[in-house]
Each structure stands twice: as structure tokens, then as C-alpha cells.
Amino acid sequence: MLHINQSQKWLLLLGLGIASFCIALFFGAADLSPTALYQCLFSTCEQPVNQLIFWEVRAPRVFVGFLVGAGLAVAGATLQNVTRNGLADPYLFGVVSGAGLGASISTLLFDSPFAQTISWMPDISFSLALPFSAFLGALFSVVLVQILVAKTFGSRTEHMLLAGVAVSFMLSAAANLILFLGEPFAATKVIFWLMGSLARVEVWYAWVMLPVVLISVGLLLLFGPQMDALLLGDESAKTLGVRVTHLRIMSLAICAALTACIVSYCGGIGFVGLMIPHIVRNWLGVTSRVVIIGSVLLGGSFMVIVDVVARVAIPEQEIPIGIITSAIGSLFFLLAMKHKSR
Amino acid sequence: MSQLVAQDLNLQIDQNLILDRINLSVTAGQVLGILGPNGAGKTSLLKMLSGQTDSQSQVTWKQRPLNQYSSSELAKQIAVVNQMHDSVFALNLYQIVQMGLLPHKTLLSRHTSEDDKAISLAIDRVGLSAKSQQTFSSLSGGEQQRGLIARALVQQASLIILDEPVNHLDVYYQHQILTLLAGLAHQFDITVVMSLHDLNLAAEYCDQICLLNQGRVESMGAPIDVLKAPDLERVFGMPCKVSEIHSQDTRYHHSPLQVSFYPPFRPKPPKANA
């Protein structure tokens, strides 16, 4: 087998990131030739319509795709480190169920016959209300998990995971009830949204997500060595001067903001937070800083490539991206299990 | 002068009195061994002495109550090697030992070549140089214990508290680790407090012994004053003999005392084959 050293691995990962960007910029509904693409990238596009397609549709989508993959992978990696559990990911903490509940409530309030009867409801378009309610729902679930853990169960990490699973199912049940009682057309919209997609991406969204991802990653990198100390247990970390509760709450808050921001606009994209850190740990190393930077590069590249597949797999149709990530993720885990049991 | 002092230390958990009016003091550069049967309160006492439980105004280190130290100040003063350590994810020994630098680093500090030297030296001192890149979970229990002692060395604390540090070690490494700890104490004025099960090792390596029984201090002082047959019989519930050894053989460092127990119960002999 080919042996490559650590710096070659990093170079390979960086190359993968750049390659995924280049590939993704080529593919799309409109046919842009390589020369046209080159012109658009480094000067001005020859045709004004190409200018619009490239800078308003394709480039933002690839860029946001990278940020989504990077953000979800980093959130997963961080949750796994602070809970010392390789299976922790944003789904497990109820973030996605919370977002789903928020989305369901927004259909009830903004996109149903019931909504017409409320006179005080401001006239907000559903496409704006949906992500915003999803964001609030995601934050609500994280706060609920934290309160449950702090007030009821104590701060043991397994309790935190159990509380996350319980909250996740509770919020899913509430969301499903609302969808069941609500208007069928709106329900379809929410279900489609929950499958995850980058199709609605607009330029402004990149500018919202970029600072959220950059600040989150920066903060998590600063606290990397402290998060490493958590890997030997809370008691051990405390004797090294780590303020364990503060660190855990801060990391969870960062993950919540990161995931809520992503899920609220792009819907439920599963398995990225679980699969990517797992690969990075096995390939590059387990210390927090390595896992975080590796997850940014690999998670981002993975999402950009998956989005290309979502766009081109079925002609003139787009598969929701969450379906592809879940399919790849589950296959990956079966293979990983088989590999480990050998 | 006493560096570590505990005055009237009590600990109660759900109606159970775990520690009852404990008073003890240790001077700098001394090794204090805490002895006692299972459930005597050794681990609880070590946790209180190391500031792992909250609000320890009754414990002072360098004349300052532990609860007046910030968490990072405390970590610079006191290194702790606990009994239980579960490592998730495949951290290697080097990375575990490196954690000892954490109290001395700010969020923006970089890893320097001096750090590398300090880590390698510590790993060398516990005899694990050949295994520094091995994953922590692949090491034996004893090697993990030595790795954590190396981490305590890197932490450069002036008080090292260890909960049964030689529990998983074979005879060779029991003596090697205790010699290392006693050497640190006597040469560098580091105070070492540890719980031990082996009374003979305690007699050999500890300057002071604190004998605990049911949460109370039964007796405290030099090994020769504490390890007395009647006290040990009462605490451990077994007939016991303590002999003083006067050997002229100077080739070996040896224990001045030999403690032997004579359990009143015997295993049944094996069945004779028909």
C-alpha cells in the first residue's frame, strides 16, 4: 500500500478541496464551456447571461455547499469530542428535529388557511419565514437539552446524549402532529425541505454563513488543546485547569449556532457530521485541531461533490442532497464496521 | 514548615459520613502515604486534598485555602494521577503527556522545541521512550499509569497527588515508580501524597504515613510509629506481625519494616483425583 506522510496527506486534502470546487463550477443546468468559465472567473463573462448564471447561481451554490459541509462536519467533530462519544452528531442532539418543528409551525402560521384568519400576523413570505422558524426551533432544542441535562440529569455525557435523543423524538412527534393536522400542500413543502437541498441558495446567504463558520471554527481551534484534555475524562481535564462546564457549554452553543444556521436554510443533511470526523480521525489524527481543520476541508469537499451528483444524476431533476448523504453515510458505516470486525 | 494542611475535614454523602474530622499536614519534599482498608475514605480524601471537590476552605496549600486558587493556578501547583482513566479515540502516549503543559499555556501559545524536550524527558524518566507514539489504549494498565505520571512531571507541579499509583504495576515498576516519586520529593522539594495498598512499600518509600479507618485518622507519623501490629490488626481485621529488619547488607535499599498478615481463613485444598 502507498505510504504518504502527514504533510502529503494535508496537501492531498487541500487538492481535493480545490478540485471539488473546479468540478462543481463546470456542472449545472446551463452549459458553460471551460473557456467561458475561465473568462468568468478571471475577467468578465463574454455573455451577460453567463455572468448571471456564474456569479449569481453557480458560484454561490458551490461556495455555500462547501460551508455547509465544513460546518456540519466541524459541529459533529466537536460534539463527539466534548461528549467523548464517536456517535454524537447534530441529529442526536435534536437540532434537526427542532428545526423541523420550527418549519412545521411556520407552515401553520404563514402558509395555511388558518393563517389567513389571523389578522395580526405580519405579511412575511413563507420562504423567509421557513428558515427563520427553523433556526429558532433548532436553538430551542439545544437549549431544552441543556436545561434538561443541567436541572435533571447532572452533567454526565451519556445523560446528555440520552436527553438529546429524547428531545429529538419529542420534537419530531410534535412536528409530525402539526403536519398531520395542517394543510397537505404545506406539509409536502416541509417534508421536501427536511430532505435537504442547496437549490435555494442565494448570494446573500453565503455572506451570512461565512462569518458564522469562520468565527465558530476559529474559536474551536483556539480551545483545541482544552478539548483534547476532555478526552481523558472530566476529572482529568479539571486537574489540568480546564473549566469543563464552561468549555462544554461554549462548544455546544457554537455547534448549535453552526447547525441551526445551516439546517435552517438547507434543511436536514444527515451523516456528514458523523461520517467526516470519523474518516479524518482514522486518516489524519485525533487531536481536536487536526480533526477540525481536516473536517473543514473534507466535509466541504464532500458536500460540493455530493451536490454535483444531486444536480446531474437524474437529467433535468435534482435529488434532495440529504437523500444522497444519508445513502452514502449508511453504506460507509456498514463498510467501516465490516473493516473493523476483520 | 507544613505546605499542605487539612483541618477538620468532613465529607458527607447522603447521610453517610465518608470523612470525619481529618487533620493532617505535610511539609515540602516529603512523601505521605495514605493507607487503609477498602472504603476507608482514601480516594475521597485525595480528591479533597487536590481540590477536585468544590469549596475546600479547610484545605490549605502554601498557607492559602484551595478554594482561593483559580482552576489554572491550582493546576500549576497540584498534579493529580487518578485511578480511573478511559481514553476515547486513539490519542498516543506523547499527546497524553503533552496535556501536562496545558496549565502553562494560554489559548494562543505555540508548541516549542523546549516543550518537546520536556515531554520526551518525562516519558524517558518513566521508561516509556520506545512507546511514545503508541496509542494510549494499546498500553498495559501499568504503562498507562506511568504515562500519567509522566504527564504529572510535565505539569511541573510542586504537589503530586496519586491514587494508588502502583496498583497495576509489576514488582520492578512498583519500585521504579516509587523510587522516582521519592527522588522527586527529596531532590526537588516536591510534595507527594499517595494512597497505597502495600504496607511494605509504604514503609519503604513514605516519609509519613496516615492510617485511615472508616473515615477517621487512626494514626499518623513516621512508618515506624504508625505501622504497629495492634493498630493494623484492628484496622484490617487480621492477625499481623511487624518485624524490624536490621540488615548489614548495604547493596540494596530495603524496607526497615516487614509487615505480614496471617488471614484466619484458608482456601479449601484441591480435591484429590480419584
What does this structure look like?
The complex is a heterodimer of chains A (342) and B (274). Chain A is 77% helix and 0% strand. Chain A has 342 residues and is mainly alpha-helical. Chain A has a single domain (6-341), classed as Orthogonal Bundle (ABC transporter involved in vitamin B12 uptake, BtuC), CATH 1.10.3470.10. The two termini of chain A are 18 Å apart. Chain B has one domain: Rossmann fold (3-Layer(aba) Sandwich), CATH 3.40.50. Chain B has helices at 42-49, 71-77, 93-98, 113-125, 141-154, 171-188, 199-205, 223-226, 229-236, and strands at 2-13, 16-27, 31-35, 59-61, 64-65, 78-81, 159-163, 191-195, 208-213, 216-221, 240-244, 257-261. Chain B has a six-stranded mixed beta sheet with strand order 6-7-8-3-9-10, sandwiched between helices. In chain B, strand 7 (159-163), helix 6 (171-188) and strand 8 (191-195) form a beta-alpha-beta unit. In chain B, helix 4 (113-125) crosses helix 5. The radius of gyration of chain B is 20 Å and the shape is globular. The interface between A and B is medium-sized, with 24 and 30 residues.
Radius of gyration of CA atoms of chain A, rounded to a whole number: 21 Å
Using the alpha-carbon principal axes, give the shape of chain B: globular
Percentage of β-strand residues of chain A: under 5%
Indicate the CATH architecture of chain A: Orthogonal Bundle
How large, in whole angstroms, is the Cα Rg of chain B?
20 Å
CATH class of chain B: Alpha Beta
Low-confidence spans of chain A: none
The name of the CATH topology of chain A is ABC transporter involved in vitamin B12 uptake, BtuC
Q: Helicity range of the residues of chain A?
A: over 70%
Overall, the morphology of chain A is: globular
Q: Assembly type of the shown chains?
A: heterodimer
Instruction: List the chains of the largest interface with their residue counts.
Output: A-B, 24 and 30 residues
The whole-number mean of residue pLDDT values of chain B reads 88
| C-alpha termini separation of chain A | 18 Å
Architecture of chain B in CATH? 3-Layer(aba) Sandwich
- Let me know the number of strands of chain A: 0
Q: Main beta sheet of chain B: strand number and arrangement?
A: 6 strands, mixed
Classification by helices and strands of chain B: alpha/beta
